[in-house]
Amino acid sequence: MVKLSLIPIYEFQRVRAAPIHKYTKLGLLADMCRANTLVSVKRAGSGHLGSSFSSLDIVTLLYYSEMNTAQLGIGQPDRDIYFSSKGHDVPGLYAVLFALGILPKDKFIKLRRRDGTFGHPDIRTPGIEANSGSLGMGISKAKGIAAAKALLGRGGRVFVMTGDGELQEGQIYEALQTAAHQKVNNLNVIVDHNKVQSDKPVAEITDLADLASKCRAFGWHVARCDGHDFRQLERVFAEFSEVADRPKMLIADTLKGRGVSFMEHPAALAACGGLYRWHAGAPDDQSFEAAFAEITERVNHELAECRLPPLQVEELAPEPRPASGGAREWVADAFGQALVEAAAEREDIVVLDGDLASDCRIRSFELKYPQRFIENGIAEQDMVSMAGGLALQGLLPVVNTFASFLAAKANEQIYNNACEQTKIIYVCHYAGLIPAGPGSSHQSIRDISLFGALPDCIMLQPCNATETRMALRYCIDAPKGIYMLRLVIGPSPRTIALPSGYRLTPGRGAALTDGSDAALFAYGPVMLNEALLAAELLKAEGLGLRVVNMPWLNRFDPSWLGEVLGSCRRIYVVDDHSPVGALGDAMLNALVTCGLLSTRRFKKFGVEGYPACGTPQEALQYHGLDGTSLAGMIRVDGESM
Amino acid sequence: MVKLSLIPIYEFQRVRAAPIHKYTKLGLLADMCRANTLVSVKRAGSGHLGSSFSSLDIVTLLYYSEMNTAQLGIGQPDRDIYFSSKGHDVPGLYAVLFALGILPKDKFIKLRRRDGTFGHPDIRTPGIEANSGSLGMGISKAKGIAAAKALLGRGGRVFVMTGDGELQEGQIYEALQTAAHQKVNNLNVIVDHNKVQSDKPVAEITDLADLASKCRAFGWHVARCDGHDFRQLERVFAEFSEVADRPKMLIADTLKGRGVSFMEHPAALAACGGLYRWHAGAPDDQSFEAAFAEITERVNHELAECRLPPLQVEELAPEPRPASGGAREWVADAFGQALVEAAAEREDIVVLDGDLASDCRIRSFELKYPQRFIENGIAEQDMVSMAGGLALQGLLPVVNTFASFLAAKANEQIYNNACEQTKIIYVCHYAGLIPAGPGSSHQSIRDISLFGALPDCIMLQPCNATETRMALRYCIDAPKGIYMLRLVIGPSPRTIALPSGYRLTPGRGAALTDGSDAALFAYGPVMLNEALLAAELLKAEGLGLRVVNMPWLNRFDPSWLGEVLGSCRRIYVVDDHSPVGALGDAMLNALVTCGLLSTRRFKKFGVEGYPACGTPQEALQYHGLDGTSLAGMIRVDGESM
After folding, report:
1. What number is the ipTM of this complex?
2. Spatial CB neighbours of A43, under 8 Å, sequence gap ≥ 6
């Protein structure tokens, strides 16, 4: 395993104290933060490097020179406040907060871990001022912070950073409009204009046209400069403090991946056929070592120029990486392939994407059927209502994005479409608790409840590749209505084996294990894996747990339900979701309606509270949803009978 | 009761066929539609006159001269398509569709009735092309329709009308951005720029600044003209058909209430201290007669000028208005008063509004505490995230708008705030099925399920004025967390009497009637009224129904639950909401967890399917939720035991 070394805090203090030119110093500090960011992401095994690097010069300037925050202290009411609306640039911010002694080392080196820091900003982390990560909310929230400061007579400026792809979100324009009208003038927005969003250049996904005049038309004071030039940045912030009659926006032209030659977007896009590969995910060992060497050599060269000794780094104790999980299966891959196959027979299929084509595995569809693929950018509401219009004309839209963004951001639009009683398939990718690294903004534990009260809505979550193909086929062939397909985004911890000859039948699931003491209903590869682990543990103790795969989240065939329960006196449901409004509740209703509960015992398990950030095992254990915890709860519950 | 007369279809045919100048003819037809619109709204007892009138000249031109729709027929794939995104101008559109013979008279004269037309556009009405009424979605949907036409090689242009206040919704800007980028050029947006939104001038609520240059900056072709001048409108549409390289927007300057002197906004605003009183609601008899006379006299004068005989009108058989309901109590009034009182002691209270201050009864707070009142316009996502920022600074935001728009449109923002574990009170006004006139876009039957899976969320719906004051007090004094207060917007059908000495206690409700055969749990004045009616009916048959007011929608005190159930063997819950994810489900879980269900019978009733439009009685009966239906179901259920 590659060796990881951190630039310790005293090195930042040394450079900060050194008698060298301010901008040279800021450049050194920013690069030192880049090195530490790289290390933390490599150590975590995931994280966003590209936009951490594009924003780091600005963030370094803000905390080391522009803002009073570090001096006054985070709790102080009159402090300047900075936060990032896009949020995935937070590893870079952590590096700055670590360098300033605000974020302790033991947390900083544990990015995306239960006892470390979150994959997206969360105020439970020292120095973080607001939760973000779900795009488009930051300017509105900063507006609230600035308005409160005015109301409470508190000092301090408010700075918020947005991405440029993020400017595709409508809420941004609501905020531009209201902030100007409400004269929330103590508001400084910095657009990290690095030109590249999740997969591709912004200009390809949804061009922002003339951004500066757009924002001026909204009544804002707008400046534009090189986001890597400290002199220019300082001049703009000085200019902003002179403008008292309106909110201010800086469009900072930056390079995505700034500071590592092969990660800077012009080179990176060319190297990867127009796709940018450093947006998320950790670099392989070779790329890591090349990047770390490039940054630290540049720093040492600069230090030498300033007649300062070279960097001392601190080797980190190797962190045992948790096993990445066995199966090679990804249900999302099966979905993507099945979608391409279905499109061959069904010319009415149109696929919509919200700038997550790679993650949602619909790139192959995009390449094969460009005319029937609509890249709608980070504009979920618009995407869903557009799907409604396509459906009104008789086409069959298949809408793709992450579950949190689709079910929650476009919920009203989904309802509006539903009221037209056309047919639309909504694919909720990245559903459930796992992966838990990105944090609560991305972990979708409410989507089933958000679709649940829609009339004519059928929800399905398949457990393996085969069932995924069956589920998509079912949705395509089914009559008019709203179909919600819920998919795990990561690799399956194991390939769930279905009974031979298994057929996907409305309202019916399948028992995966024998056992006549208790039945445990679950769905999807993640929770079924834990359910099967629990069954194995309990079997050794002589308790027969019948694990049932139940892909239908709100449909039940009463006769099947009776059969599958058989002689089981105890019924358990584990939801990869909040325990409210998911399979557990639907099941309980079905049991009571069918008279199957009577004297049986019923308990549901689910993601209680806010979803924990960490490795899969950390998150599952925290919520008591890993196999061992499930077995324990079932054991105890039996004893209490 | 005032006499109502309709201008019959043959009169429209006569004028259409008359050898007079085109623009004179269009003016006559538009005014004749105004007269019929006025009649339909008066007959319905509610409806939107102001924006029907401001848009009618444009809609008349489109259907009578610009579009091929009437000639080709509504079902024809190559037809031009028009719909209104704001939707509340639909009474005017109905009048045009009636005049053209597309909408039958028996439906047209039954605005907002079960067997008539919907309060907001619904495709189940002949001639209506899309559902709307929840603002901001129309351009996106029209984009989908236009994209489908291109994909399917269908002819016909796509026209969509928006309001100007509607341009405060962020989705509008998502659509402007994507439509330009995706080159959906067969898209013609008409902004009915009548300068006034629900309560006040747009410029006061959230100014749109330089609208034309704003939209040009988004890459659109923009034209502006007088929306009441047919010659100018024709010229613009001709110009639009020449522009093939981008989507087009017409900013049509109009007068809200155009055509009735005292309803036109300059006069109306002056007459009412800056508030516009003709946005929604039917005119009183005197105003109706004055308005009808003014329009028809103008039409007759014009006909005389053209040497044509005067209008013949058809008197409508008087429509017995359903009783408007007994009690003078409005729980929303009690909320507004209690909020003002609470603000005197609690300086941290800040009230946010989404352009519904009058309906939400927070105008008195606005007047008394202007510094702590934030009018955020029709921008719910921005409002909710701004509340999050205010809460991060330690203030207590009370967020107000209609339940549908708050719970569904800003759902992701509510979750993001919740993850910060601050304290915010969300007030869901216009919750539930009633009033049913506005239609499914406004009837909120999913809000409880949309809040349900939020950790730390407590939901309450009070049944009368007293309990409303207690509920607000509870939310204000309670610890950190998310509080959702659900309020009926209309008058209470009766004032629900609570037991003397009643105290609002977490998890506890109160029995309102004796009865030991069955217990029926309900909440809010509307459903409790029906529950009490059911109890009265069943009592006469010797069945004792214990009606229980349960204001806590997701909290239960087990010991109280046991007490209140007593010897009742049958448990019923009636939700003013979809039966999925509301009190019924929470109650069932509580009963099972507390071991109180065992051999008891449980059934839940709620709003199944899509909410019906009509009078309160029509909607309640349609969904089987009126007292008689409830009694019937409970009776039958007992017999089947």
Report:
1. 0.98
2. A4, A109, A110, A111, A316, A319
